[in-house]
Amino acid sequence: MTHGHDAAVSTVPVATTRSVMEVPTGRLAVWWVLASEIVIFGGLLGVYIMQRIGHPGWANQSIHTNTLAGSINTFILLSSSLSAVLAHQAAERGDGPRAARLLRLTALGGASFLVVKSIEWTHEIREGFTITSNLFWSFYYTAAGLHALHVIAGMIIMLIVAAGAARNQHLHRVENIGIYWHFVDIVWIFLFPLLYIAK
Amino acid sequence: MSGHAHAAHDESWIKKYFWSTDHKVIGLQYLFTGMAMAVIAGFAVYVFRMQLAFPGHEVPLFGRVSAAEYNALVTMHGSIMVFWVAMPVLIAAFGNFLIPLMIGCDDMVFPKINRLSYQIFLISALIAVSSFFVPGGAFGGAWTSYPPLSTSPVYNQTPYGATMWLIAVVLEFAAFLLGGINFVTTTMNSRAPGMKMFDVPIVVWMIVLASVLFMASVGPLVAGAIMLLFDQTLHTGFFDPARGGDPILWQHLFWFFGHPEVYVVLLPAMGIVAEILAVFARKKLFGYRTIIYTTVATGIISFFVWAHHQFIAGIDPRIASLFSVTTLIISVPIAEMVFVYIATLYGGSIRFRTPMLWALAFIAEFLIGGVTGIFLGAAGADVYFHDTYFVVAHFHYTFFPIAFIGGFAAITYWFPKMFGRMMNDTLGKIHFWGTIVGFNMVFLPLFLTGAAGDHRRIYSYQAFPDLNTPALQHLRITATIGLLIMLAFQTVFLYNFFRSLFAGQKAADNPWHANTLEWLAPSPPPHGNFAVLPTVYRGPYEYGVPDRHDDYWPQHVPDQPSTDGGVAPSRAAEAHA
Amino acid sequence: MISWYVPEASTFAADVDHLVLLVAVIVGVWFLLAEIVFFALIFKFRARDGRRSQYVTGEQKHEKRWISYPHYAVLVFDVIIVVAALRVWNTIKVATPQTQETVRVIAQQWAWTFVHAGPDGQLDTPDDITTIDDLNLQVNRTYQFELHSRDVLHSFSIPVFRLKQDAVPGRVIRGWFTPTRTGTYDVQCAEICGLGHGLMPARVHVQTPEQHAAWLAGAGSGAPGAPAAPAVIADAGSAAQTAGGTR
Ligand code: HEA
Ligand code: HEA
Ligand code: CUA
Ligand SMILES: [Cu+2]
C-alpha cells in the first residue's frame, strides 16, 4: 500500500488534491478508520464488561494477571505517544529526518511493548492460564491480542512512513500515523484497568 | 512499480481490467462479480424450491437433495444474496461508478485502497463459493450462524464450511469498510466547485449514509466473529453455556448489525429510485431535504430495534416490549420517505421507459414488504409468525425489490453511461413484466403458507401431518412455478445485457435528458471522466423550471442572462469565487 | 385469518388472531390508500403531448403538509398497534397465571422429550411419565412448561396454541398455556438445529379428562396411540441426561 514513487508514473487524480471541507483528506480517512476500530473494540469491551458484571467469580482469575507488566507497558506506550507528538511537530517544521528518527523511536516503543507482553504471556501460559482456561482468560487474550495486532500494524506503517519522511516525502502522513498511534494508546488505557486493575 | 509509463494499448488485459485503480473499472468489477454471485445464489434457490415443491424427487441439473444439502443451499443462498449480491451491486458497483462522476471529479481519492477493497471482496466471494466443495460441504446453520450450532462440527457436521463462512463474511466486512473510506472522503472533499452539500444527488447521499451506517453497526459483530472463530478453532467458550458463555450474546451482536444492515442495502436502492423518478417524471423531488432527514432518522432509530428478531429467543420479555415500540416507530420515517416519493409524481410528465417501470415497481412492491414488517414488529403477533414463511415472504418483499428491482433499475438506467450503448427497451419491458409477475407468484403464496404454520429451513414438510396437506403443497408448488417463470425471464435480461454490450444502439452522452453530472461526461467516460472538470450551478433536480425552453437544467450549465427570470436558483457568483 | 388454516386451541390463540386482524386492517387500509394514490398519480400525470411537468419543490409549508399530516397519522396508528400488541404479548409471555401442573420439555438433536407429572401432578416423583415426541395434555388445564435444551438452540412451537419459545442450552425457560380444544396437533421445532431440523416433529394430544385419566393409567405400559413419528432417535427411551446430543 505504499504509494509515492509511482506517483510520477500514473498522474495523481485531481480528486486527491481537492479539499472542500478544508480538512486534509488523509486525516478524514484516518478518522474513518478509527471510528470503525472504535466500534470493534467498543463491542468487544462492552461485551466483556457485561459478562464481567454477570460473573463475579472472574475476580479469582483476574488476580493472576501481572499488574506490574501491565503498568510497565502502559508507561512504554504513553511515552511512545509522546515521541509521536514530537515527530508530528518536527514534520510541521518540515524537518523530515528528525520526524523519521522520532517515528522510529516510537516504533521501538511498540517493540518493547510487545517484548514485555510476550514475556508476560509466556509466564501466564506456563502457569496454565491459556485462552481456553476460562472465559476471563479468553477475553484477556482476545482483547489484548487484538490490541497487540494493532500495535504491530501501527509499527509497520510507522516504519514505512518514516522511510518516506527521512527523504522529506509525504510529511502529512506523520500526523496521520500519529493519530492512529494515539488511538492504539487509548485502547490500552481502557484495557489496562479492565484486565489488570479490576481484581 | 512498473518502471516507465506505457501507452494505454500496451497495458495487458489483466492490468486494465483486473489491476486497475480506475473507479469505473472497479465499479464494473463489483457489478460483474455481484451478477455472477446472483446466478449462483439463484441456482441454489432453484434447487431448494424444487425440493420443497417435489420433495424427494430428483431435481434436474442437481439430483436428489439431502437434508444437509438443503440446509447448506438455504444458508448460502441467504448469505450470498445479502453479502455478495445486494451489497456489492447496490453500494460498491454503483457507489464506485457513480460517486466521482456525479460529484464532478476524476476518481476516488484513494484509488489503491479502492482496488484493495475489491480484491479482498473477490477473495471473500471465492472462499464463500468454494466452501460448497470442501469435505462436509458448505455451512448449513442459516445465514445468522447462531451458536452453539455454528461452533462445533459435532453439532453442524460441517467441519470446514462453518469456519469458511465466518472468514468469508469477515473479509467481506473488511472490503466494505475499506470501500467506505472512499465513498465518504471523496464525497466530503472532492465535490466539484460550486457543489454544496445539498446539491449532491440523493443516490450519493444514500450510499454515503449507508456506508456510515454499516461502519457504525458492524464493529460489535466483527468482535463477535473473532470470538466465534476462536470458539470454532481454539475451543474457547465465549458462546458455550457449559463454560459460562452465552449463546444469546451472539444473537445480540448479529442483529445489532443485522437490522441496520437491512437499511444499508435499502438506502442505495432508495437513492437509485429517487434519481430515476425525477428524470422520468421530469420533476423536482418533492422535498429533497425531507428525504435526507428521514433517512438520517431511520438510520439512528435502526440501532434500537435489533431485538425484534429475538422476541422469543429467551430474552427478558419486558425488554422485548421496548423493542416492539421502537420497531413500530421506525415505520414513521420510512413511511414519510415513501410518501415523498409518491408525491414526487404529482405534477409530473411520466415516461414509462424500462428504468422507470422498475423504479415504480420498487415502490409498489416495497410497500408490501414494509407493511408486513408491522405484523412482525407487533410482539404479540410475532410469537406466532416468528420463523415462519410469513417472515420469509416479508423480507423477500423488501430484499427482492431492493437487490433485483433496484439493481435492474440502476443497470437499465446507467447502462448507456457505463458501456456507451443503449439496452433494448422492448426486451427490457418483457423482462420487467415476466420478473414482476413471477416474483409475486413466488412470495404471495408464501405469506399464506407462513400464516398456515410452515416454518423456515425445513427441507420437507412430510414429517408434519398438519402441514403435509394438499392445499399447502399446492401453494408451495405455485411458488416454485413462479420462480421458474421468473428464472426463465432472466435469460431475456442476460441476452439483452450482453447483446447490448456489443451491438446495442450507440448512446448519446445524455440520452435521458438528465441533470446530474455523470451525463456531461462522454458515454462511456474515459479515464479521467471529464474533458474539463465541471463547475456546479444548481441542485440536481431542476426539472420543469418555468420560463425555460428545456424542461431540464443540468447542474453544470451556467445561468444564461437571457433565460433566467430571476426566479430560478442561481449560484454562479459564489461558484466562481 | 390464521384460523382459516390453523385452529385456535389455547386461551390466547384468539387474542393473537385478533391482533393479527387488527394489524391487517390498519396497515391494509394504509397500504391500499398508498397504492391507490400512487397509481392514480401515475395515471393522471403520464406524459402527454404539449403538457410540461410542473415545478413543485415540496419545500413550501403548504406542500409539506401533504407529507407531515399523514406522517402524524401513521404515528397515531402505530400507538394503537403497539398497545394491542403489548397486551397480547403481556398475556402470553409476561403475566403467568396460576398454573395447575408443570410439564418438562427437553429438546435435543433431533427429538423432544416430554416429562409429564403423572397421576400425582408433581414433577420429579417416581410416577413421572416420560415420552418421546408425544405430549399429552388435559383440555382446559393450565400448564406451566419448563423448557430445556441439551445441545443447540431449538424452538418449542405449537401453532394451534400460537405458542413459540426458543430452547437455550444452559437455561431453563418457563412459560404457560391452557389447551382449549381436544385433538392431536403438530409440535414443531422452529429454530434451525442442524441436519435433522426438518425431522423434529412431535404431536400434542389434547385429551378430555376421561381420555387423559385413561392415558395416565395406561402410560406405564403402552405407548400413546399416535401415529409413529419418523424414527429419528430410537434409543432415547429414558430421560437420562445424555449430554451433547446424539453423536
Ligand atoms: C432490506 C430489508 C428489510 C427491510 C427494509 C425491513 C423492514 C422492516 N422489518 Fe424486516 N426483516 C428483514 C429485512 C427487512 N426488513 C429480514 C432479512 C428479516 C429476517 C431475517 C432472518 O430471520 O433471517 C426481517 C425480519 C423482521 C422481523 C423479525 C421477524 C421474526 O424473525 O420473527 C421483524 C419484527 O419486527 C421485522 C420488522 C420490520 C419492520 C417493522 C420494518 C420497517 O422498516 C418497515 C417500514 C415500512 C412501512 C411500514 C411501509 C410504509 C408505510 C406505510 C404505507 C404507512 C402505513 C404504516 C403504518 C400505519 C404502520 N423484520
Ligand atoms: C437480497 C436478498 C435475497 C434475495 C434477492 C433472495 C431471492 C430469492 N429468495 Fe431468498 N433468502 C434470503 C435473501 C434473499 N433471497 C435470505 C437472507 C434468506 C434466509 C436464509 C436462511 O434462512 O439462512 C432467504 C431464504 C429463502 C427461502 C427460505 C428457505 C427456507 O427457509 O427453507 C426461500 C424459499 O422459497 C427463498 C426464495 C427466494 C427466491 C425464490 C428468490 C428469487 O427472488 C431469486 C431470483 C434469482 C434470480 C432472479 C437470479 C438471477 C440472476 C441474474 C438475472 C443476474 C443479474 C443479476 C443482477 C442484476 C444482480 N429465499
Ligand atoms: Cu430442533 Cu430445529
Ligand atoms: Cu430487523
What key attributes describe this structure?
heterotrimer; A: 199 residues; mainly alpha; 77% helix; 0% strand; C: 247 residues; five-stranded mixed beta sheet; 23% strand; disordered C terminus; binds heme-A; binds dinuclear copper ion; binds copper (II) ion
Q: Describe it for me?
A:
The complex is a heterotrimer of chains A (199), B (577) and C (247). Chain A is built from seven helices and no strands. Chain A is mainly α and 199 residues long. In chain A, helix 2 (25-54) runs parallel beside helix 7 (172-197), helix 4 (67-92) packs antiparallel against helix 5 (96-126) and helix 4 (67-92) runs antiparallel to helix 7. Residues 1-10 of chain A have low confidence and may be disordered. Chain B contains 17 helices and no strands. The longest helix of chain B is centred in the first third of the chain and has 36 residues, at 67-102. Mean pLDDT of chain B is 92; it is low at 1-8 and 562-577. Chain C has 247 residues and is an alpha+beta fold. In chain C, 31% of the residues lie in helices and 23% in strands. In chain C, strand 1 (101-108) and strand 2 form a beta hairpin. The radius of gyration of chain C is 25 Å and the shape is elongated. Classes of the chains: A mainly alpha (199), B mainly alpha (577), C alpha+beta (247). Chains in contact: A-B, B-C. At the B-C interface, helix 3, helix 5, helix 8, helix 9 and helix 10 of B face helix 1, helix 2, strand 7 and strand 9 of C. One heme-A sits between chains B (144, 262, 265-266, 308-309, 327, 330-331, 334-335, 338, 367, 370-371, 373-374, 376-377, 382, 385-387, 391, 394-395, 398-399, 402) and C (26-27, 30-31, 34, 74, 77-78).
